[in-house]
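Dear colleague,

Following up on yesterday's call, I've attached the two folding results inline so they're easy to grep. Please treat them as preliminary; we haven't cross-checked anything against experimental data yet. The first protein's sequence and structure tokens come first.
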Amino acid sequence: MEEISMIGLDLAKNVFQVHGADRTGHPVLRKKLRRGQVLEYFAKLPHCAVAMEASASAHYWGREIGRLGHDVRLIPPAYVKPFVKRQKNDMADAEAICEAASRPAMRFVAVKSEETQASAMVLRARELLVRQRTHLINALRGHLGELGQVAPQGAANIRKLVALVASGDSAIPDVARECLERLISMLNQLDGQIKELDVEMARRLMTVPGIGPLIATALVALAPPPETFRRGRDFAAWLGLVPRQHSTGGKQRLGATTKMGERSLRRLLIIGANSVVMWRARNRTRTDPWLDRLIERKPPLLVRVALANIPLTHASMC
């Protein structure tokens, strides 16, 4: 067998496809591996570059294969797709991964450590619990609304409806009260679990207005290492907070935001920017001329996206 310089590994649950190429890019290896054979096989191979798509399990395999001495490279799936020839199958995917990884200008994803993935799991778990709490709040509102009992919008005002159920108001039938008490019990449990997860959140980067423990944790857990980017504006572009370009012939055309990168982190930053704008409106402060002019001239959502972009381009790389 000729010397293998690059391997494209198409990940799966049980059957993995390996595509090896030499220094000139010619294929010298095509092989299928069962899940239990992967590490044993790579342990016997001479050290080479191993490329994979940055999928859910890619960071685990990247760490394990990297410990065997190989140079691991994770590629965003969107960058691999243009190299797939005709029909899509495991063999074509592995070849496309190998071809994409050999490009000199290709961008790679840093392999996450177990600690970073654990932090991300805390954030994901909290998001799931918050969604479940929202479902319960909406159900409680809807059921009581059918009985003519309403409260102002907002999660904080749901306690008025909870107090109404606990008061024993005769306007609520006993059967309905028992059902609503079960929903309230589940709501209280979710509140407690969310608060427990909040305690575990990191407390970094909170000197930037609009960024608190939740966004700080998301930046640490979900974003690539700062050294991945040359400047803060590159990070904002990765996150999808910059306009989509459709320029040609020297004429620049900018559209809506690209919405690339990590969706949860982008959403949290926009929510943080929204809190800054709302605070300025409530307190009637005008300490930032740039933001004041933007609020006067641009739509509200555009203002919030632009404000979410500012801390990234100026402070995130510090």
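Below is the second protein, in the same order (sequence, then structure):
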Amino acid sequence: MLNAAICGSINHILKTSPWALARLCGYSGAVVAIEGTPFPLRLKIQDAGFFSVAEPDDLAAVVIVLPADVLARLLADRSSLFSSIKISGAADLAETLGFVFRNLEWDAEADLAGLVGDIPARRMALAGQGLTAGLCRSAERGLENIREYFVDELRVVASDEELVMFAEDVDVLRDDLSRLEKRIERL
């Protein structure tokens, strides 16, 4: 049930991207296994480039292993998501899938416009973008506060300045030791 919903969502986005369908239709019949999530997914590429839910016993041409924090990365930083995905199997299909999913974008505003009209959809999209930006800023400030607490209050983690001073002290100690070794050699 969940696999069919995910497959339908991917196909909905693909419907607005003929370039992606053209790239995928050359791999008709290939199965893609997506793992590393609570709900493993197996998709089969159809003749037109759309996906369908594959049978459990179909052999996967490509296996994609997602990181555990896939949803957070998808919302916050898509570039870090793509660099943390592990892909194995047919190299040409894997490359095509990587290109398609890296460049595929959902036009949520267009979908909303079909439901509520253009102006409300635009306002809702702007509100959503503002909310997302605000949540990201709040998360960054929260992480900075946690970092400061561990560095300044608990003193569990060294500050940047302390690390620089330590590195400088190590350099001085290394140079002093080198000079002492040379003096001992001369004796």
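For the second protein, one point worth flagging: The beta strands are 31-35, 41-45, 51-53, 62-65, 86-89.

Best wishes,
A.L.
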